[in-house]
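Summary: Need help interpreting a holo structure output

Steps to reproduce:
1. Submit the protein chain below together with the SMILES for nicotinamide-adenine-dinucleotide.
2. Request a joint structure prediction with the ligand placed.
3. Inspect the structure token block that comes back.

Expected: a single structure record containing both the chain and the bound molecule.
Actual: see attached output.

Input attached:
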Amino acid sequence: MPNAVVTGAASGLGRAFALALARKNWRVLVADINAVGAAETLELVKKEGGSGATFRCDVASLDDVKAMAAFAFGEWQRVDLLINNAGIAVTGTVGDAPIEDWRWIFSVNFWGVLHGCHVFVPKMREQGGGHIINVASAAGIVSLPEMPAYNATKAAVISLSETMRCELAAHRIGVTVVCPSFFRTNLAKGLHCTDEFQKTFAIVAMENGRISADEVAKRALRAMEKNRLYAIPHASIRLLWFMKRVSPAMFYRNMAFMNKSSRFRMVLLALARRGLT
Ligand SMILES: NC(=O)c1ccc[n+]([C@@H]2O[C@H](COP(=O)([O-])OP(=O)(O)OC[C@H]3O[C@@H](n4cnc5c(N)ncnc54)[C@H](O)[C@@H]3O)[C@@H](O)[C@H]2O)c1
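--- attached output ---
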């Protein structure tokens, strides 16, 4: 039976990953800073006929991540899949978002992912292979205004994953980076924002997301099975990504032009209501 470690598995996408893996007969270590939610996920994993354990881990702490790896390798001897999924959200333009929020989001969304990679890569090399899925976001590709801190953490995760893909191929360790757009989870509940519009937009965009967390997990696992680097579940983001690669300067000239208009926010909100963000 293959073994997986999933961070941020008490809720949303992490829980969806844990359940999808249980259905595929994987053993899952349900890791999260929220021990109660992690225990609920494990119950659901068992209801699906799966098995595993929980581990309380703050991914922002290197010591916690080392302890989580020691537990997983101690119990199961090998870890075939690590999913660095735990994440939080912060909005607010540069200069307005408090610097503490920048530090906080980097400690989880970037350092949390790096801690996982840093600790698990040598062990996966030793065991002769494995796979790492890093959860980034469409935000790391499209760089929407008013969420620079979130965008920057996710762009860093994409770059890290691309680099690791090259470094680890010779060690039979696959790397997949997932870049979804908005989908329904609890992410907006803990959002730090600088105005009410940002919170409303995030909630509306997530509530109306056209793809569910289950579907994002399914598509990411399919990408892993095919050993693909990128998993971009939303067609709209694949289109925007293509446009950006064709002409990055024009892409951002248009984005800056739209952002200058006082109506841009209203347009974004209308698109979010229709599930088009
Ligand atoms: N929901 C979306 O629209 C969306 C879009 C793109 C990317 N993502 C990414 O998906 C991932 C999962 O988020 P979600 O949407 O399922 O949100 P969620 O809030 O439902 O789940 C996030 C989980 O991470 C856990 N967590 C937070 N900080 C942690 C820490 N320091 N250590 C360990 N666990 C921690 C939370 O307790 C929670 O269980 C995140 O990386 C997020 O950035 C989400």
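--- end attachment ---

Reviewer comment: The longest strand covers residues 27-32. The pocket of nicotinamide-adenine-dinucleotide is lined by residues 7-8, 10-14, 32-34, 37, 57-60, 85-88, 108, 112, 135, 137, 180, 182-183, 185-187, 206 (CB under 6 Å).
Status: needs-info
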